[in-house]
Structure prediction request, 443 residues.
Amino acid sequence: FLNRNIVVFVCLIYLLHFRLFWICVLIISGWNMINLFILIRHRYITDSVSIGVSTSYSRWTNTFPSVGICLSKNRITESFTNIVKQRFLDETPSYAHIRTLYDYVFINPNNLYLKSDFCLQYNSTCGVNILDMRRELFAHSCTEIMEKVYFAENLIPDCEQIFKFHELEMGYCFLANSLYDYPNIEKMPLRYTSLDKYRNLRLVLKSGLHYRYDLYINSPEDLPYFNAVFYTVTNEPSIHSFNVEEIHNNDGVMKEPIYQRMCKFPSESNDDGIFYRLILITKLNQYFKQLIYSFSNCLSKVRSEMEMELCNCTLFSHKYQSEWNLLFLQILRIKLISRQSQQLWVRDRVGYHMECLPSCMEQQISFVGSRENFNTMDESGNVVEIEIASPPTVRYYRAVTQTKLELIVAIGSVIGLFFGASIINLLEIISIILKEMRHMVKN
Prediction:
């Protein structure tokens, strides 16, 4: 009897240890499986899109960066003085008054140094309609400011084939290779390959006018905006050299959520019409507005909204285009916003709140240097040349690395790793359960 009890006790201990062993195994396996599920989900959310590099540059057709020529304040000319005097026939405006009007006409977010004391007896815009003066004084066609345009050392017979007029926050600008004028990058006129001998755009601009020219180099979806780097065009011929690297997107990237790829395509603007382009529908022979998103446009939108919150006034924003006359009458109040404060507020709002994401197709443009151009000394106007120092040898590709199908496969692999389960096993378990339930019903 004693021996039998000992045997039973040993068997119970063995069974208990056996069960504890498998309970521990299941707990550890389940814990590791849950951790792997968390890692898979985290990777799917944060790392579903990756950027790769390609170096097969001999087959590439590259896009020239967008070139912007904006009219900026230079010096008061006799023609400007006469235009002002025609608006004040009953009196002779003083030089200080004319100078103040000149500052008003060329006002932009980078030029807010106004002297309102000379206009106390007039309204806030010194007794004239600033917008009308801009339309009268400034060029609306590139033919009014450009004498010659060369691309890859070939003369372009009509500059309007390249440069389109736009009224922007930086004033009256003429843009080349801008996404706002073409349905896609492939339709743009300024393109080059690594086999091309010349990769340059040379402009001969008219001199002696009452404005100077500021040169902006941007990615095709960007526009000249406040606090952007620009190059002043002088009467000394100069060459500005740049290197450009492009980012292309594989199929499926646009279908990924924005919070996963952390960038936006130009067609993903959620605004109510700040910047747009007109797209022709061939079948209907009609145009419709397509909103454009870019990092620079988002910055301009943030700046304009902050100005409206602070003083209910803003400078030439497309969002408030219908209210320009009213908002411009309050322009003196914007002097309360210094340029440094403006930059800090916009930077903080964009940086902390992630309000402006980069563009998914933004070109990486790096400035190489500037030098004098001694080969164009015989040209009569202001000569400026933009060149690509060396053709790109690297191109970045954004691709989807974690799709929903791959997420399901990864989850199934983890389950199979820890339980040895497959779809066939699950079907067998379901079949066994159904048989048992049927047997229980019969009994």
The chain is about 35% helix and 25% strand. Residues 272-289, 322-327 have pLDDT under 50 and may be disordered. The CA atoms of residues 235 and 382 lie 5 Å apart.
